[in-house]
Design a protein that fits this description.
Blueprint (H helix, E strand, L loop, with lengths): L11 E2 L14 H17 L1 H7 L4 H10 L17 H14 L1 H5 L2 H13 L2 H12 L22 E4 L5 E7 L10 E7 L5 E7 L5 E4 L14 E9 L4 E2 L11 H30 L16 H33 L3 H33 L12 H9 L5 H14 L10
Antiparallel strand pairs: 1-6, 2-3, 3-7, 4-5, 5-8, 6-7
Helix pairs in contact: 1-4, 4-8, 4-9, 6-8, 8-9, 8-10, 8-11, 9-10, 10-11, 10-12
């Protein structure tokens, strides 16, 4: 039996390193202005990147240089400390252009929140300084073969010479291939969940570009292998403390996922509109000259626009709830924020899938040409919305609405 030769996708690879020189964004309005300008540029080549699976190294370098990676850094450390409303809008704007690029830094912002809540001042000075210089945090969280998504087998054990040794295999590690730092979730010797902030290229860390999803194809959400990685104690943060009291970790993380789904929906509807105006033909029975004048097509666009606007409104309201809870964090405000975000996500997921499929319904036969790659919207929506099941969010929303039961404390709500 002959063996096929190995390709680059089969090999353990280290991230492509780019020297970052980043501007520092000073406020909310500037962050949105910068995100809108980047989204316009990224949209131009999104279809080609998806078709050829060209990883967005250059685009991520632009994202890093823009200063957007540092917008959540506290003002105490030189950042803009923008609101959750602004952060969600930045992600929504990027996702309208290319949801792959939007998803890559999702964990970056999530782990910066962990650092804000559980990091030591020394850890904060180090990582925040790196981020303001344009450095990207990836992630190594999920694992295959466990009983459920929250089970962690990766272990941090004590080393006789001081510090720790890290061993494990992480899957679906979005952002790791591009990252300067890779936050890794693991269990410490006391069986508590911690986050290890690993510099990319640390000996014993290898990244395999084996992501083969039908959508979100250029997130490079591959495998991170950790083989006897030496870890200084100074790079370990006690993530288990995040969930000991009222917290916004899950709400902040899920808010960004919801923003990506809302962005996909808006991007798909905008693409559908442009296609109908420029390329589609009216149905013969309509009696109109242009497809954009067809009353049934207009009706369908109205229905879809209502759905997308509702998703955008729920996203905005959820982000405001997160900001309000951040000012006065109690069990009540944290629960209200989590439920608001869960509501936005539970609504946005099916809207993204519906609108990205309806694109073909309103645009007609020509839109199905493979060369146009318009199916990327549906593939991206369907893939990203599998991140965690919204049916469980609906359960928590129902318990909260009916009985006032607070949602559970974990990273998915």
């Amino acid at each position: 039996m002959s063996l096929e030769p190995l390709t680059g996708r089969d090999l353990a690879v280290q991230p492509k390193k780019i020297q970052h020189t980043a501007q520092v964004i000073t406020g909310d309005r500037e962050a949105i202005t910068v995100a809108r300008a980047l989204a316009e540029r990224f949209a131009d080549s999104a279809a080609q990147r998806d078709a050829s699976r060209t990883l967005p190294h250059q685009e991520l370098a632009e994202l890093a240089a823009s200063g957007l990676l540092g917008i959540s850094v506290p003002r105490l450390y030189g950042g803009a400390q923008v609101s959750a409303v602004t952060t969600a809008e930045v992600f929504r704007l990027l996702a309208t252009a290319d949801p792959n690029i939007a998803q890559i830094p999702q964990s970056h912002f999530t782990f910066l929140h962990v650092l804000d809540r559980q990091g030591t001042p020394e850890q904060q000075r180090l990582i925040y300084g790196e981020v303001l210089a344009g450095k990207l945090l990836g992630n190594a969280q999920a694992e295959k073969g466990t009983r459920h998504a929250q089970e962690i087998r990766t272990r941090l054990t004590e080393h006789a010479g001081g510090g720790y040794v890290l061993n494990g295999i992480k899957n679906y590690s979005t952002g790791a291939l591009f990252a300067d730092w890779i936050p890794v979730t693991a269990k410490n010797p006391e069986d508590q969940v911690v986050v290890v902030f690993l510099p990319a290229g640390t000996p014993g860390v290898s990244i395999v570009d084996d992501w083969d999803g039908m959508g979100q194809r250029t997130t490079a959400s591959g495998t991170v292998k950790l083989d006897n990685v030496r870890v200084p104690a100074e790079l370990v943060a006690p993530h288990h403390l995040t969930f000991d009291g009222p917290q916004l970790h899950g709400a902040r993380a899920q808010l960004l996922h919801a923003a990506i789904d809302v962005g996909i929906a808006r991007g798909a509807l905008a693409e559908a509109g442009a296609f109908v105006r420029n390329y589609s033909r009216p149905w013969a029975e309509s009696g109109v000259e242009w497809a954009a004048e067809d009353p049934l097509t207009i009706q369908r666009f109205g229905e879809l626009e209502i759905r997308v606007r509702a998703a955008e409104a729920l996203l905005s309201r959820a982000a405001k709830a997160v900001d309000e809870a951040g000012v006065n964090l109690t069990e009540e405000t944290a629960s209200a924020a989590s439920i608001a975000v869960a509501t936005a996500k539970a609504f946005a997921d099916p809207v993204a899938v519906e609108v990205s499929a309806a694109l073909f319904e309103v645009a007609g036969t020509r839109s199905a040409l493979d060369s146009l790659n318009l199916d990327r919207y549906w593939r991206n929506a369907r893939t990203h919305t599998l991140h965690d099941p919204v049916r469980w969010k609906v359960q928590h929303i129902g318990r909260y609405a009916l009985n006032g039961t607070p949602p559970p404390r974990h990273g998915s709500i």
